[in-house]
Amino acid sequence: MDDAAFSIDFAAAYTVLAVLLVCTFFTATNAISARYTAGYADELRPLAERLGDILLKSPGEPEDWYMGPSNASNASIIGLSAGHPGMLSSYKMDGLYLFNATGLKGALGLADPDGRYGLRIEIESLDGAVSRTAGHPLPPDTRDVYKSYRMATVKEPDGTCRDARVIVYMWRKDVGATT
Amino acid sequence: MARPHDDGAVHMLEAIMASVLVVAALVYVNTSASLPEHDHPDDLKVLSADVLNVLQYRANSLEHPGLGFALSSPGQWHDSSGALGADIGHMLPGGVYYYFETPYGGLGQKPADGMEVFSRPFVACGGDGKMLDCRMVLWRA
Questions:
Q1: ipTM of the complex as predicted
Q2: A118, A120, A111, A117: which is closest to A166 by C-alpha?
C-alpha cells in the first residue's frame, strides 16, 4: 500500500542508522576513555623507573635484609643487587617473599598509607629457570597499568649468571578502568 | 530505462557498501584507541643502561660472553660478537633493535637515516690497555 505511514524501506534504513549511531557513540566514548587511562599509566612512569632502579642497583639497607623476617621488618629499604648494578642476588630475590603486597611498597620506599597504588614485580630469567613474582595481582583490565621493562642478570649460588627480565607494574587504584 | 525495482536494488547495494565503510572506520578507530602506546624515548635510555650493566658484570662464558671479554682484542670480537649479539637480541622487547659501534666493527641492525634512535656512548678497555670509544644504539621499528 503506497500510503502506508512506515514503509519497509524506511524501517530498514532507520534501523541501520540507529545501529550506526550506537556504534559511533560507543567508539567515541571508548576512544576518549582509552586516552585518559593511557594518561593515568604514563603518569606513573617516573615512579616505576625509580622503584626499578632501587631493585636493580641497590643492595638494600642493611644489606642482609633478606636473612629473616626480623631483618626484613627492620630494613629501611630493600634492593636486590648482589654488589653490581643490574646483577641480582638469588637470595635477595627469595627475600621478596618476606613481604606481603602492602609491605613490599613500604620496603621499596613508596609511602602509600591510603593504599592508592598497586605494585607487582615479576622477575624471570630468559631461559625460564628462575621465576619470582611479588606484590598485588594484576587488575583484569591493564590499560591503566604502567609496565616498566628492565634487564638484569641473576647471580645463582654456584656463581652462574642468568640474564633475566624484570617487569615493574604500577597502577592507581582510584582511577581508570578498574574502579 | 531502469525499472523501479532495479533502482531499489541499486540503492540497497549503495547502502550496504556505505554501512560497511562506516563500520570499518569505527572498528579501526576502536582498535587503535584500545591499544594505547606507552613507548617513550626514556624507555630506551633506561633499557640501554640495563643491557650494558648486564653485559659488563655478568659472568663470562663462551656461550654468553661479557662485553669486556669480547672487546679484549679484534680476534676475540670476531669470535664472540655473534653470541653477544644473540644475547642482546633476546634481552630486548619486541620491536626494539640494537646496533653496536666499536673500533673492531659493528654489530646488529643499523638504523636507517632519519630514524629516531637513542645513542649511548661508552668506553671499553681493550686487552692492551687501550681505551676504545664505542656506542650502543637502540631504536624502534
A1: 0.75
A2: A120
Indicate the number of domains in chain A.
1
Confidence of residue A174 (pLDDT cuts 50, 70, 90): confident
User: Containing domain of residue A120, as a range?
Assistant: 38-178
Domain coordinates in residue numbering, chain B: 1-36, 41-140
Nearest beta carbon to residue A151 from set B15, B47, B59:
B47
Residue in chain B lying closest to A141 (CA): B34
Domain annotation covers residue A16: no
- The reply to whether A133 falls in a domain is yes
Q: Name, in order, each residue with C-beta under 8 angstroms of B43's C-beta and a sequence gap of 6 or more.
A: A149
- Separation in Å, CA of A70 to nearest CA in chain B: 31
Amino acid identity for residue B127 in this structure: G
A101/A114 Cα distance (integer angstroms): 14
Q: For B60-106, how does the pLDDT look when each residue is reduced to its tens digit (9 = 90+)?
A: 787 888 888 999 999 999 999 999 999 999 999 888 999 999 999 99
